[in-house]
Amino acid sequence: MRLLVLDSGAVTGLAGRSRGSAASLGFPKSGGSWSAVVPAVVLVECLTGQQGTDAVVNRFLKACRVVDGPHERLARRAGALRAQARRGSAVDAVVVAMAEPGGAVLTGDVRDLRALASYARDVTVFAA
């Protein structure tokens, strides 16, 4: 199973499309060929703390696995990627580092994430 890590642009974009967007894209929470993962730090960028506003995103997140972190090793790797790429946010770098090795990232910010992924080990970036 390949890991598909979603950034905030992917989460909010997909959440706004339809109630079944995660299932329709073929990345179930577990099983199948993809496992959709959202680093918990991504929630900072896609949630507002207002129940009505967050309802669509929270419904979408039920189809994904939200992962705590980053732990120290992942944070250090993300820092190294960000320094090498000289672009992208700290959250972007965590998303790419979490996809290493052999995973993919689904993003609304292809330019920054591809720059980070160019220094990562076998990470593919897809536009959301």
Could you explain the architecture of this structure?
The chain has 128 residues and is of the alpha/beta class. The chain contains seven helices and five strands, in the order βααβααβααβαβ. The radius of gyration is 14 Å and the shape is globular. It starts with a strand and ends with a strand.
One letter per element, helices H and strands E, the order comes to EHHEHHEHHEHE
Which runs of at least 5 residues are low in confidence (pLDDT < 50)? none
Biggest sheet details: 5 strands, parallel
Distance between the termini: 20 Å
Q: What level of helicity do the residues show?
A: 40-55%
Shape call: globular
Arithmetic mean pLDDT:
89
Count every beta strand, where a strand is a DSSP E run of 2 or more residues. Answer: 5
Radius of gyration: 14 Å
**Strands of the largest sheet, in order across it?**
3-2-1-4-5
Number of helices: 7
Structural class category? alpha/beta
Beta-strand residue percentage: 15-25%
Summarize the structure.
The protein is of the alpha/beta class and 128 residues long.
